[in-house]
Each structure stands twice: as C-alpha cells, then as structure tokens.
Specification:
- The protein contains three helices and six strands; from the N terminus they run ααββαββββ.
- It has 139 residues and is α+β, with helices and mostly antiparallel strands.
- The protein has a single domain, classed as Thiol Ester Dehydrase, Chain A, CATH 3.10.129.
- The protein has a six-stranded antiparallel sheet.
- It is globular.
C-alpha cells in the first residue's frame, strides 16, 4: 500500500526536486499530486515559469504515480517523455496531477497535468505523457 510519507521520502531522495521545491500533497495507487511555490529563480526573462521547471515537476510526479504500482523492489524510470506547453505558466504556485494510463510488467504509461495557480484561478498550462521502464536497481 502506498502512503504519502513514502512518496515524500521518494521526492526527498531526488535533490533536484528538493531544490525546485516540489512537494507531494496526495497519493493513491496510480496517482500522485504535487505542488510548488514559485520563486523568481523558476522564471524565464518573460516572467513565466521556465519550461524545464514545468517538465521536471510533471516528469517526477508521473514517475511517482507509476512507482506506486511497481512491486518487488523495481524502479520506474522515464524512458521517453513529451511535454505539451499549452499556455504560459504564470502564478504564485504550480500544482501537478500525475496518473497512470496503463501499467504493464515492464512498461508503464503515465500522464501529468500541470496547473498554474493565481489567486483562486487554476489554469491548465502543460500536459506530459511519459513511458516509464520498470527496472531492477543495480547493487
């Protein structure tokens, strides 16, 4: 059974996620929700969130959703991803929902939707599709 504490531990073992400030807020089998408070360092010169920040958040959130379904010590590792940037990400916070579309023994297909939060407004800004390979950790 997956729980929020184990997913938070998964995120803290990824230094880049810690540096970005991505925090899991909810989890269930095949699903993970994260958020991050935006800072000046996350922005491009245009004032919108950098695409790399959006993609990294979406990738790791989809990965956590996939990892929630992996058993026997395996790891879900991104093999391929595509990010569609739908509109500029402008706000005070990003929220992300990652879900597994199809889970197999060796491949998992997952998606993440990223939302920019500004006041009470929640706007879909990006969608990521990923293929994750289930691998055994090396000693």
């Amino acid at each position: 059974m997956i729980d929020l504490d184990s997913v938070r531990s998964f995120f803290t073992r990824a230094p880049f996620m810690v540096d970005l400030g991505v925090v899991p807020i909810a989890v269930s089998e095949g699903r993970c929700e994260t958020e991050m408070l935006l800072q000046q360092r996350h922005l491009q010169h245009t004032g919108q969130v950098h695409a790399g920040v959006v993609t990294a958040m979406a990738d790791h959130t989809a990965g956590a959703a996939a990892q929630s379904l992996v058993r026997d010590g395996g790891l879900a590792i991104t093999a391929e991803l595509k990010t569609s940037l739908l509109r500029p990400a402008v706000g005070s916070k990003l929220a992300c929902v990652g879900t597994v579309v199809k889970s197999g023994r060796t491949l998992i297909f997952a998606e993440s939707d990223v939302f920019a939060i500004l006041g009470e407004q929640r706007t879909l800004v990006a969608r990521l599709s990923a293929t994750l390979a289930v691998v055994q950790p090396t000693p």
